[in-house]
Amino acid sequence: MLLIAERHGKTTTQFMLRWNIDRNTAVIPKSANRERLKSNLDIFDFTFSAEEMNKIANLDQNKRGFVNPNNNFFLWITQFLR
Predict the structure, then answer these.
(1) Domain coordinates in residue numbering, the chain
(2) Per residue in 11-29, is it b (16+ CB within 10 Å) or e — as a string?
(3) Per-residue pLDDT reduced to its tens digit, 37-75
């Protein structure tokens, strides 16, 4: 992801926002920082090639994750949530 984001001159956050929008997934980025809010909106000046979209799709390992707001680290939920 980082290599593709850098190729487009974007951050990984911008990369993920654009990728989800390209997949018709609703995204609601959250930030209290004005500069990050601006950055989150600066995602409509590039597109992914079909090859890049395929590479991204092939990263899927069928795992889901979320941020625990109580201690702010990633908890990864795997196969047992099926």
Answers:
(1) 2-81
(2) beebbbbbbeeeeeeeeee
(3) 999 999 999 999 999 988 888 877 776 665 555 554 444
3-state secondary structure 5-46: HHHCCCCHHHHHHHHHHHCCCCCCCCCCCHHHHHHHHCCCCC
Per-residue pLDDT, averaged over 26-45, amounts to 90
* Residue 58 structure tokens: 């092939």
Helix (H, G, I), strand (E, B) or coil at 65: strand
Q: In this prediction, what percent of the chain has a pLDDT beyond 90?
A: 28
In 3-state terms, what secondary structure has residue 77?
strand
Which of 46, 51, 58 is CA-nearest to residue 5?
A: 46
